[in-house]
TrEMBL record:
Signal peptide (residue range): none
Organism in which the protein naturally occurs: Albidovulum denitrificans
Entry protein name: D-xylulose reductase
PROSITE patterns: ADH_ZINC
Lineage: Bacteria, Pseudomonadati, Pseudomonadota, Alphaproteobacteria, Rhodobacterales
CDD domains per the UniProt record, alphabetical: sorbitol_DH
Cofactors demanded by this protein: Zn(2+)
PANTHER family: SORBITOL DEHYDROGENASE
Annotated keywords: Metal-binding, Oxidoreductase, Zinc
SUPFAM superfamilies associated with the record: GroES-like, NAD(P)-binding Rossmann-fold domains
Amino acid sequence: MKSLVLERKDELSLRDFPAIDRVEETLGPRDVRIRLHTVGICGSDVHYYTHGRIGPFVVNEPMILGHEASGTVIETGAEVTTLTVGDRVCMEPGIPDPNSRATRLGMYNIDPAVRFWATPPVHGILRPTCVHPEGFTFKLPDTVSFAEAAMVEPLAVGVHAATKARVKPGDIGVVLGAGPIGLVTALSALAAGCARVYVSDLSEKKLEIAESLSPAITGVAVPGGDLVARVKAETGGWGADVVFEATGSPAAAAQVFEPLAPGGCVVMIGGQPDPIRYDAGAAMVREARVENIFRYAHVFPRCVAMLASGAIDVKPLITRTFAFDDSVRAFEIAASAPPADVKMQIELPQ
Ligand SMILES: [Zn+2]
């Protein structure tokens, strides 16, 4: 099966990758086989490509990339009841151990045994077909395109973050970082009820994209825009109810409480590979609640429902689409981080 393989750091190839090298190809009774249609390029895929590792996860042998996916069911296991051949679907990429303590506590995303696509040693899905559990495969309404459905995975992070923040109608939000995760977080915060969301970033182009998503999003340039002064001035000196950290930058994390209102909530989203410092004193005087999130737990159906109803529109975030045969070039471009791009996707031949 022709697959996009990360051979080692800085080396990608589009080549045949024998099914025998992947344990998950056998169709179990509660599994479906899926023909992949669209796969988004995630920051984590690019990070494995350019660094060969993310924290403790190291690429020691060739690994297929990709985990943000949609496709079509082409075969169903004997006990599958909710999906049939021909169904258009999106897939949740992390499969926990159903009997683990974390799963039974309702926190399957932090199950240490979770198997997540394109996280060593588990292969991703930039390949023609995959086998996936029925319970982690979600049927799409006709109105949700394959491209939008491949955005459900990153959107799920934003929805999980807004849920953890316990956003209330009329809250004022701040999102640090206008990358794909920052922008889906801003959209999720608005869908959850925020009256206004301030989004800060170094890139003027990214802020332009952010502001184009909704009249309730205000872009604030860093440096220069003075986010804290702006938020305070527009909230009668009170500050934001929720601050989402979506940059992964230690410098941003260090100041995460500054725009926060008393009693507010900070949600740490951006991956921090190294230890960071934040101002615990600034958190204490506000009695700030701090939430940390890792991926998401069972929010795919909510995301699909919001795309279907129009409550969230992710189409403006999809800025470039490549053919599967162009995947290596797509990753080279993604690794250069073009400022005008948010999400790049790859379409597989059907
Ligand atoms: Zn992703």
